[in-house]
Amino acid sequence: MNTEKIWLVTGASAGLGLILVKMLLDQGHKVAATSRDGGALLDAVGAKLEGSFLPLTVDLADERNVRRAVDATVTAFGGLDVVVNNAGYGVQGALDSLSDADLRGNFDVNVFGVLNVIRAVLPRMREQRGGHVFNISSILGFDGGCADWGAYSATKFAVSGLTEALAVEAAPHGIRVSLVYPGPMREARNAHGHKPGGDPAKMAQALINAAQAQYAPLHLFLGRDAFDQARAKIQSVQQELARWREMSVSIGVADERRLAA
User: Fold this and answer.
1) Active site residue 152
2) Is 156 a catalytic site residue?
3) Which of 5, 13, 30, 153 is catalytic?
4) Which of 86, 140, 130, 80 is nearest to 110 (CA)?
5) What are the structural domains of the chain?
6) What is the pLDDT at residue 253?
């Protein structure tokens, strides 16, 4: 069975994005990849694969720039099957210490860049009745309790929220959507200063496996740190729901009517 797909990966000049692009090319897929410097991206991939690899210089915050990149991908490869919204960066600092420019710049790339890509690819995927969108959030887009990373966490919570809505909107058109929560990877220290243990190559392969799976996950946590942190957050919320249940449900209109009776 031919499993070759046409992929578009944003933020591919380093880290998970670069590893994913190399892995996809090694496995015979066609890949368009974006970076702010397409020439540097071509050098980073380390291979000139005519007909298989398309490096694109893209400013994801520029909607027209993004649309041109998607058009170029379809023109070069004849279609588009899988999109990975991977581009993003973190702004560190206490929330009251960050400038308006810092905050808006972070949202421009991490949130509005994702939305620009979605608006460009969804009409094509609806027309072809299929496709798969991976939006890379972060474990800090599920559990925001990490001091000095509130701005980054806010952008990733936004990605998580819009992705859940996208999944509902896209499903009737045969489009699959996955929200990915990576934990820290071993190429850098994590937000707590600990040496992370996540293997970016294994994370990249997990995305490929999810794209090939019969049933794609909506929520995909990658890394033991991410898995454990998510489970702890869920347990904490469940405990608070139970502790404050009486107050929570007491304000409902139906409850007031019962009390009046």
Assistant:
1) yes
2) yes
3) 13
4) 86
5) 6-223 (3.40.50.720)
6) 74
